[in-house]
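Input record (Table S2, row 515):
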Amino acid sequence: MPAVPVYLETFGCQMNELDSELVRGQLLRLGYSFVDRPEEAQVVLFNTCSVREHAESKAYSRIGLVGKRKAAGEQVLLGVLGCMAERDGLDMLRRHPQVDVLCGPGELDRLPALLDAARRSETATQAERVALAGNRTRRTATLHAVQDDLETLDLSRAFDPDAAGRARHSAQVRITRGCNKFCTYCVVPYTRGAEVHRPPDHIVDECRRLADTGVIEVTLLGQTVNHYRYQHGMALTVGGREAPQVGPGLSAFRQPAAPGVTSFARLLQRIHDEVPAIQRLRFVTSYPRDFGPDVLKVMRDCPRICRYLHAPAQSGSDRMLTLMNRGYTRAEYEAFVAQVFEHLPDATLAGDIIVGFPGETDQDFEATCDLVRSLPFKNNFIFKYSPRPGTVAIDRFPDDVPDEVKRLRNNQLLAIQSRTSERVHAAWVGRTVPVLIEEHLETAAPTTVRGGVELRWEPSTMPPRRRALRGRTPGDLIVAMDVPSGTEGGDWVGRIVPAQVETASALLLQGRMSH
Ligand code: 5AD
Ligand code: SF4
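Output record (iron/sulfur cluster complex):
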C-alpha cells in the first residue's frame, strides 16, 4: 500500500516544535510519509498555538483553506492538534466542520488511533476522532501523571540519525510539561495542564541516545525549567519504573533539595557528567524566581553547560508585575540578574516583555524601558498584550490600552533593546569564542554599521556574493564568518570552531575562524 502523504505545520513555541517532531516520528514508523506542501497531502495536520491571538488567526486561515479544498470535493483529512484544539474543544468542530480530528497537546500519543479511525470510516464517532484533556482537575491530573500515556510519546522518540536530517547536531528534550504558575495573561496552564516532571532516568537516557546519533547540543524544555523537582522512592510507579510526577507547591523551592530529590541543578549535573558527548547543554525557559545558587554553581563548574539564561521579566513596573501575578518585584528581578553575573560574569541574558497589559500607563511603560536600558539583555522578545479567553486577565482587567499605543510602545522598546543588544555584542569584540556552526550560506558582504544604523547595499552596488558560515556561541550570540579558503563550507556545519570576534552589531558578531 503506498504511504499516505502528510503535511504537518507547526505554530508557536519550541515545545510545539518538539511535539511535532515526535508526532512525525510516530507517524513515519506507522508508514505515513511527509510532504512539504499541503496540496500534495491526504492528511493535513496543524499543530497550533493559543498564546496570542495572532497565532490563532493564522491557523484559522489555514483551516479555512483546507475547508475550501474539501468543499471542492478533494479527499483531505484535517487534524487540528495542540493548544487551540484544547482551548476551543468541540466548539472548533461546530464552527469548522471541515476539521476531522482534534487532539490536545496532552493527548498526542493517541493521534495515530484518531487518524486511523477517521480514515477508516466517514462515520467515525466524535469520541473516536477527538482527544482532549478537557476540564481535568488537579487531583485527577495527579493520577493521570502516573498513568501518563503522554510519556510514551517522549519515550517513543526515533533515534534515527537520518530522520533528524539537517538539524542532526541539535535536539530538544522535554523535562517538564505544563505550568503551575497561572500568570494572569497566559493560557498555557489551561491548555497544557498542571506541571508534570519526567523521571530523571528517562531524560538522561534520551540525552544519551540522542548523543549516540551524533547530537552535540541539547536544549532542555519546560515552561519553568528551574521548577523541575523529582522525588524518588514514591510508591507510584508504572511497571516498576519511575513515572512522571506532578510538581510540588511553589514553596518547595524555598528550601534546599531534600535527599531523594533530583533538583534542576542535580539534573543538569547528571546530564553533564553522564553524557559527555553533549558538548552544549542549554535550557529554556527559566522563571526568574526560585532560581537557586545551586543551579548557578553547577553552571559555573560544568564547562559544557551553556551560560545562557532565557528568563522573561515581562515588565519593569511593580504594578504590572503584581497584576500579571508574576510573583516577584522589579528589585527582585534585578537581584536575580546581579546574582547570575556574580557567579557567571560571561553569561548572556535574554527574556520576554509584554507591552500594553491592561492599565499600563506611560509611567509603567517607562519603567520597562528603563529595565531594558539598564540590564544587559542580549535580546528580548517583545509582545503586545493579547487578551486570551479563559485567563484571569480577560475576565478581570479590561484591555484598555489602544492597539495604536501598544504598537508604538512595541516599536519604542524594540529600538531601546537594539541599543542594549549592540552594547552587549560590542563587549565581545576582540575575544575568541567557540562557535557551533549551523549554516553555510551564500551572502552579500556584511552590512556596515555607522552611527548605530545598519547600511544595506542597493542591489546595483552590491559587492560580489561570498560564502559565509553562521553559528552560535554557548551564550546564544550569533556569529558570522567567512568560509576559510580552500575548504568546503558545508563541511563545517555541526562542528564547534574557535572564532576571533572582529566587529559587532545589534544583531550579530562578525568574526574570523582562528585555527
Ligand atoms: N499576550 C501577549 N504575550 C503573551 N505571552 C504569553 N501570553 C501572552 C498574552 N496573552 C508571552 C509572554 C511569554 C511568551 C511565551 O509569550 O511574554 O513569556
Ligand atoms: Fe504562562 Fe506564566 Fe506559566 Fe510562563 S510561567 S507558561 S507565562 S503561566
